[in-house]
Design a protein that fits this description.
Layout: H1 3-18, E1 20-25, E2 32-45, E3 56-66, E4 77-80, E5 86-96, E6 100-106
Antiparallel strand pairs: 1-2, 1-4, 2-3, 3-6, 4-5, 5-6
Amino acid sequence: MNWAQIKQKARDAVHGTFAVPGLYSDSKVTDLEIMVRLHRKSAYLGDNYDEFSPGYFSEINRVIVDLREVTPERGATIRIPDFENVEVSVENYNRQGEHYALCEVRA
């Protein structure tokens, strides 16, 4: 087993453990049942960041989808009924290994 296969196996285990049901809709499909993971990232907003800078950190909402279930498109919506019907809109996505995509979203 090579390094990429080991990382893929780990991603599969994490997604299988933490994913929740979601409903994906875009210009071609409505309410496709998929499994998704919510993911948040802290990001510094502003110029001239160093360890002593006052500044503003923001939480960036992201959703991880399995590309074997759906290939997300910009403007698609993902509704997550288990989280009080959270609905997000896909801005863009980056592949994470062979089978997953990290989607930046707007709530």
